Every structure is written in C-alpha cells, then in structure tokens.
Amino acid sequence: MSFVNLKQLAGELGLASSTVSRAMRDSYEISTATRERVKSVARQLNYQPNPYASCLRNNVTKTIGVILPQLDNHFFSLAINGIEEVAQQNGYHVLIYLTHDSGEQEKAVSKYLTSGRVDGILLALASGTRGIGHLEKLKLLGVPIVQFDRVNETLRTATVTTDDYASGYQATEHLLRAGCRKVAHLLVSESLSISSRRLQGYRAALAAHHVPFDADLVLTGTASNDENLRRIARLLTQRPDIDGIFASVERLALSSYQACQQLGIAIPDAIKIIGFSNMETATLLAPALTTITQPAYAIGKEAARILFQAITKHKPVLPAQSLELKSELIARASTACAAR
Amino acid sequence: MSFVNLKQLAGELGLASSTVSRAMRDSYEISTATRERVKSVARQLNYQPNPYASCLRNNVTKTIGVILPQLDNHFFSLAINGIEEVAQQNGYHVLIYLTHDSGEQEKAVSKYLTSGRVDGILLALASGTRGIGHLEKLKLLGVPIVQFDRVNETLRTATVTTDDYASGYQATEHLLRAGCRKVAHLLVSESLSISSRRLQGYRAALAAHHVPFDADLVLTGTASNDENLRRIARLLTQRPDIDGIFASVERLALSSYQACQQLGIAIPDAIKIIGFSNMETATLLAPALTTITQPAYAIGKEAARILFQAITKHKPVLPAQSLELKSELIARASTACAAR
DNA sequence: CTGTTAGCGCATTCAG
DNA sequence: CTGAATGCGCTAACAG
C-alpha cells in the first residue's frame, strides 16, 4: 500500500484529474452526484492530496515557523500551546526551531525560512542575537513576522509582550512596601527587551520611593546556572545589607532561593524574593517566593492570531497591531512581608 | 524583493538551470570554476532552493512530525529539546502537533500525516486513544513511527521508554523501607502504558515486602487538577492510615503535596510522597518531595536517532530496536525518612 | 458540467 | 563538462 494520487483516483473513477480535483475542493461547477461519488471513492482509497504539490502550485504552504530560544522554560511551552491551538483552528501546521539563545543558530534558522518554507514566522529573540540583518532579509522577502516576549524594537513588526516595565515597577514596589531598602536586581542579558524594560521599571520604582539606585546591586546572569548561583551567593556575602531580590526571570529566582538556602539566609524574613515564573510548581511549593506570572498561553494565541490575520489578508504585520498583556503578581507571602 | 528561483539564477549566470542545480549540489561533473561562480552569485542573490519543489521531485520531505499529548508537562518540553537537536543535526525540520490527550485529535493529526507530509513520526500516545487504526494506516503507508514514553504495545514499532516497571518498584520500595505500610498510588489513566507498568511495579514491590495490596489505595486521576486535589484530599481523610503516597506523575505529586498542606498533614513526617518529576524546581523547592527523574532529553534524542536511522536507510523501524532508559531517584529527604 | 493543457521549481535523465 | 527535455502531483485557465 502506498500513497494514492489524483491521477490514480481519476483513473479509478473514469474522470479527468481536474474534475476530481475540483470535486474534492467542493467547486461549484461540479454536480452533486459526481462530487459525492468522487469523495466516496477517495475515502475508500485513502486519497490525501499531496501537500507539497499543492503548495508548489498555490504558493501557500499552510505552515508557520516558530523560533524560540529554548523550551526548558515553562513560559515557552505554554506559549506553544497557544500557538499550536490557533494554528490548528486555521488549518495550519507548525514548524518549530530552537536557537538555544545563540545568535548564530537564529541566523541559520532564519536562512532555512528564506526559501518560502513558511507563510509566516513567530519569533522570540535569542539573547545572543546581535545584528538583525537575517530578520530584515525575511521581512524584505515579504515573510510576515510577529515577535513575542523577547522582541527587537528596531525591527518594525507587530509584537506581543507583557507589561514588562509595569511589572518590573510593581515587583520592586512590592518589595519596597514590604520594608526592603536594598533590593538587588537579577537580569538575563542587557540586550534583551524584557530585561531592559524590567530594569527600567525597577529603577523607576526606586526613584519614586526615594531609594537611591545602586549599580552594584544589579547582576547580569550567564547561561550557566551553577555560575549564576556562585555569583548570587558572592553578591549576598559581599553585601549583607541586601534585604530583597527581584529576579527578572524564573531561573534566577530559583538560583536566588538556592543561594539563600546555602548561605542559611531565611526567606522571607531576612530576605524577600520576587521573581517571574510560569510554573505553578514554584508558587505551590515555595509560598515564600512571590511570583509574577505572565499570561504565556494568551501571548502565544494572540501572536498567532495577529500573524494569521496578516497571512490570510495578505497584509503586512504592522507595529501598530502590537499588544501588551498584563502579568499577575501572586504574593502568597505578602502578609508575612507586610507584618514584618 | 522576492524569492529567486533556479531559472532566474541561471539566467543571471548565463547557464542552464540544470547546470546550476548540479553546481549547487556539488555534483562531480561540474568544473570547480563554474561551481564557485554559481555559488558566489547564488549567495549574492540570496538564492534558496524551494524546498517544496525539491520534495515533490525527490519524494523526500526532510521533515518529521512529532505528536504529543501536551506541553504543560516538563517531560515533553525536554524531550522536544532532544528531538529538535537531533533533527537539526540531520538537516531535518520538525512539525509539532498537540493532541491534548484526546483520541479524536490524535486521529485527526494522523490523517494530516497520511498525505506524505513527513518522512517519519515520533509519537507519544494520547491517554484518550482507544483504537489504533489511524496508526496502523500510517504504518501500512510506509511512514516510519517511533513511539516514546507513552506507547501502545499492540502497534509493532520501536519504542523508547523509561524503566517504568523498575522505577515503580523502586519508588514503592523506597517508601516501604522508610517505614510506610499503607502506600497510596496515584495514576493517570488505566489505559496508559506508563501507568500500568508503574502500577505493576508498585504491586510487585508490595508483594515482595509482604504488604497486602489494597485496591482502595489506588486512585486514578482526571484531566482536572482541581478534581484530582479534591479526590486526593477525600482519600486522605477517609483513610487516615495512609502513610505514604506514590504519585506516578508530576501533577499528581504536586496535588498530593497541596492536599497535605490543606489538610495540615506534615510532610515527610506524617506522610511521605514520592513522584515522578522532570522539574528541577520541584526537587529544589520541596526537599521533602522525593522525586524520580526521567531522562527526558535523552529519550527525545534516542527516539529521533532511531527514526532517522530508519529514514536514511529506508528500513522499517522494528520493535527490536526499542530502548529502555533508566530513571533516577532523587531523595533529598531520604535521611529524614530513614531516621524516623 | 467536464476534459485538455500548461506550469509551479526542481533534479534527473539523455544528448551532446 | 554543459544544455535540453521531462515529470514529480496538483490546480487554474481555457475549451467545449
């Protein structure tokens, strides 16, 4: 048993392949009788049109590409859930590419997609990306791109992000209100939009509360968790006056937690930690860890929705279509903090 | 600017498209001089061969399909990491489909792939799958399938799993050795291979330690976390003699943890919990929760490796190529347990 | 309402 | 070493 093609099916039916093609696609110019007959025999022979032939003919691939830094972060898993759902609703297929936060990998992947393999792209930028020539090229080729979460602001596309500035502000304010005065801030990479905007929020909140900004309290993470752990521990040792940590990303919140445990620092009494997280686990298992949860699933869905709108209407994605969704601060330990 | 095709490139070069095609594919019958010239101009014009045309011509899609129940479980995210890596190494593209554990969705997805869209399939079975006709059809069509993690044993394909029986045994034994006598077991779905094999391990360990099996201590979960939480709490209330819980899956371990917290039961003193988990978070944040970690990343890689072997050698995947990898028991609280 | 024909972009004959 | 011609499977334009 092998794949049945249109011609074979037409032969079996005693019809021309064009007729069969039309019948299969419910063309109005085919009589109901033959349409039904065609469909019945097609079902019987398990006929499925070859997607690649249609694609070649129609210049429509019915597939989108999703480029992500990683998948070991729950945020992106949830985002894909949303993306895949919207894709399936629209009859689209989803190609997935991981860059492991490497700019080189991102370039390589972009090149694959320069060939017309996909009708559109959803992109969360790698932290290692420096230039954006590879993305400009895709845009120039007319491939619609929607950026989400980690976006490059120079590239003029629609973006779907969370309220990074606002949540950075809120997080910091949460700690300040709980009595913290020396709040450390941990970020992933200076070049990442999410990091810089959260940092801005952090600084603004400090300023609003008349707490001086101290550059020594800002730590940039690396790709290695072990290294991050060491650095955080060193910072906490060197600066025993630190009474709060705002981690701009889940991994760093966990490493902070771990560092405190290692150093025997009590959470949340001696130190208060707040960090982004999309793992229910974190909030469940560590009530002391105040978390900020991003609507990852909704972000995926919205990004996909904007992309499909552009694809089906043959319009470019415009920065004006950008969306900013709200994060949610979940402070299970807030009472404890306030009580102090 | 739009896509450049072979013909245009050939025109630019003053060569026949066949020559250019050969040059691009490093054919031995092309002189080094023209090959270099072709490649240089190709680079300059951003020529990328249209993958769908090649596919039509060669009958090779260079893409695989990955069918998964969900992605809200860290196990599958890690597995995709492995799969994607091996795919990229082999120059392959990865299409992803989520079934949300629905048998209907799995059937629909299978149908998409009946059209020659992919060269092979990696599959983790939906818990809602009843018949396997849709998979048999794919096999009959000659599409290689490798099953991983959640496998159907009737379908004769290679499988990559973990030592579910052994780890179920170990987990149970771990609790028994820590002094537990009434060990509850929480499983996902009776029809799932991982569940039934872990259950077998559980029963065997009980038997080996002369602890009678009590069917009332076995609870099957639902799709709803809230419902699971309620059921677990009810079980713990009705059976205050329970002194240990073996959760066969992360979500259920977390729900157990939560249920104990709600009921004010101390962990790990009053009750000991052991559960599968691939979240570093869980072990990090809840030392009281003994976890069994599956080598998810390796499973993805191995499954992909077996699939690519079959694809490149045009051989069917045989059950004989199946692999069983080892899980790891991480008992941070084991000392506490043993001390009791 | 149905059939004939041509061509999407590429790779592979077969000829030179 | 290079070029011309053919067809992968499908659809759309053009006939009838």
From TrEMBL, chains A, B:
<dbReference type="GO" id="GO:0003677">
    <property type="term" value="F:DNA binding"/>
</dbReference>
<keyword id="KW-0238">DNA-binding</keyword>
<dbReference type="Pfam" id="PF00356">
    <property type="entry name" value="LacI"/>
</dbReference>
<protein>
    <submittedName>
        <fullName>LacI family DNA-binding transcriptional regulator</fullName>
    </submittedName>
</protein>
<feature type="domain" description="HTH lacI-type">
    <location>
        <begin position="4"/>
        <end position="58"/>
    </location>
</feature>
<dbReference type="InterPro" id="IPR028082">
    <property type="entry name" value="Peripla_BP_I"/>
</dbReference>
<keyword id="KW-0804">Transcription</keyword>
<keyword id="KW-0805">Transcription regulation</keyword>
<dbReference type="InterPro" id="IPR010982">
    <property type="entry name" value="Lambda_DNA-bd_dom_sf"/>
</dbReference>
<dbReference type="InterPro" id="IPR000843">
    <property type="entry name" value="HTH_LacI"/>
</dbReference>
<dbReference type="Pfam" id="PF00532">
    <property type="entry name" value="Peripla_BP_1"/>
</dbReference>
<dbReference type="InterPro" id="IPR001761">
    <property type="entry name" value="Peripla_BP/Lac1_sug-bd_dom"/>
</dbReference>
